[in-house]
Amino acid sequence: MCTRCLWLDPTKPDYVAYHDNEWGVPVFDDQTLFEFITLESAQAGLSWYTILKKRQGYKKAFHQFNVKDVVKMTTCDVSRLMDNTDIVRNKLKILATINNAKAFIKIQGEFGSFARYQWQFVDYQITVNNIKSKEDYPATSEVSVRFAKDLKKRGFKFLGPTTVYAHMQASGMVNDHDNACFKKQEILNDWQHIDIKERVI
Fold first, then answer.
1. Residue 5 placed within a domain
2. Is 126 among the domain residues?
3. Is residue 2 annotated as involved in ligand binding?
4. Could you list the residue range(s) of the whole structural domain that residue 17 is in?
5. Which residues are catalytic?
6. Per the domain annotation, does 24 fall within a domain?
7. Is the whole model's pTM more than 0.85, yes or no?
8. Could you list the residue ranges that cross the membrane (predicted)?
């Protein structure tokens, strides 16, 4: 039987699958990064599992997270989504997703990809934290504060330092699996000889 992170509820198979297959694995695909940013920004004030349960609803509502389609969404789309029970019906968050898509595309234009922009904040290296107990989990970091500040300057909404840190954990910039979790070492083994900078530049 595998040992997994202390925060995980092992009675929820979908939660376990997310932990085992996605959380903390480095991501370089812009569409996936936009998906993660959208879901993390939707989480504000809610549990991550609530958003995870609505993930498919978000995919359908926001064009499979194709950022070029999301930027074309109109006030009519916003009104329609306010009646969509498959997502969080918060108008400000819905508007933020469309707004963030526009800012996301600007970054792609400036840096070549969002992945290239994002990974520069950790100097193209996975940050590995020493997690022995639930108390060891950081809520923010110096990097997430700087990353969030830059995103805000570029027009992003609902992406403060705590939300951005959660995004960093999810997209593998930070390996915050417990020291005892099987996934921690698995990720380290998979990525120890890979030049991340070459992946995004």
1. no
2. yes
3. no
4. 13-198
5. 18, 40, 48
6. yes
7. yes
8. none
